[in-house]
Specification:
This protein is an all-alpha fold and about 80 residues long. Helix content is about 60%, strand content about 0%. It has four helices and no strands.
Length: about 80
Amino acid sequence: MHAPLDRLALADLSVSYPQETLDEVADLVLRRHQLSARNAGALLTPAQARPYLERGETERLGMRSAVVHVLHALLLLDLVELRGP
């Protein structure tokens, strides 16, 4: 791995997000992914086509976790700035 990325991966970043925000981001990402896949000609299985809110809590938890990691990566790479209250 690239040395600067190694350092960033180990960075202590304590930013938390409300669960409602993470749910909203995960739901939007899923919708955009499904739409993109369909527009590219993909046929989604029934499991892949399920809306966010129809997924089990374990699956939604995993999706929220992925969102947190992406948001942290964007912050660490200075691609986005943290907005103040």
